[in-house]
Amino acid sequence: MKSSLQVRAIPTDDHLAFIASRRSVSFLQTPAWATVKSEWRGESLGWFAGGELVGAGLVLYRQLPKLKRYLAYLPEGPDLDWTGDELDGALSALAAHLKSQGAFGIRMGPPVVTRRWSAATIKAALADPVLAQLSDVPADEQDTEALAIADRLRSLGWRELSTDGGFAAGQPKYNFQIPLAGRTEEDLLAGMNQQWRRNIRKAAKAGVEVTRGGREDLAAFHTVYAETAERDHFTPRPLSYFETMWDALTGEDPDRLSLYLAHHEGDLVAATTLVQVGEHAWYSYGASTSAKRDVRGSNAIQWQMIRDAMARGATVYDLRGITETLDEDDPHVGLIRFKVGTGGEATEYLGEWDLPLNRALYAGFTAYLRRRG
Fold this sequence. Notes:
The protein has helices spanning 12-20, 32-36, 87-100, 119-126, 144-155, 185-191, 194-206, 218-232, 239-252, 297-311, 333-340, 359-372; strands spanning 5-9, 41-49, 52-63, 70-74, 103-108, 113-118, 141-142, 159-160, 174-179, 209-213, 257-264, 267-277, 280-288, 316-321, 345-349, 353-356. The chain is an alpha+beta fold and 373 residues long. The strands form 2 sheets. A 9-stranded mixed β-sheet has the order 7-6-15-9-14-13-12-11-10, with helices on both faces. Helix 7 (194-206) packs across helix 10. It is globular and about 60 Å long. The termini are far apart. Residues 165-169 have low confidence and may be disordered.
């Protein structure tokens, strides 16, 4: 049966109005994100049932070298009724529109949570030498309806991407989140492990001061961020990237992006960025100095962001991605240990999925990306 849903480009204002009506939409699905990702071309799309806007998404088009053909990417989107009867039709309408725009393939990351693991469950799993990865651990919550969406996608020709490689712009399948709804600051502290509570108290006793910064403070943030990149062996983004991100996100909503600075006796010891859309807040970038690590500026700054997000109506504080390793010999296990200390929960999303529209061009482009590393 032919779907009654129609897909077409929508103005930025209509897209923002739809986002404002939703409890949670990824910041990667806001119109401003197309400005941040300047190497892509952005387009806001709407799904219409008659004249009613019932879904929306940001599409980023990446051009194939030397050809006017594109990979169409919807990071952590689109925002649809993923469990509704119209899903097949909604995705078919999306494919038809994007193909008409010159897309040879589509990549998307459905914002659908399939499983959750509590901090207590993960802590026990980390202590079990038999368990090597999170997917081996029985989940505390499992959404069978969400898991069934994967079968629907496969039946429509979509392919799930591997989580240990693939596209450079890919988003994590596993995230760590702290539920905030109905909880007090005392509840949140009680949920943290002893080390986190001790570090928060130690920072306060040492006189660490956490403040909100402005655009003019991005340079100071970037200095600490570059130091962190060298220490942790990753390639830092340039200062201009963060300036563009600030201008785009705060231009869309003054409260969309916040910069936090932790000082100790006048020295900047940690700096972070926080993004919030509706009731969902994300810790997006963090940095700390090697000097004065003992004053625990990183714990102090996280605690301030959590409290501020809750005060602004957030029901989820998102610490973003984790790998699923539980192996003590894997250097990535430290990240999950740090985040588990907050007392939150690991969440598994459906992951990212591709739909080839032109198989030859799709195969050529994915090979090109692999060569680029």
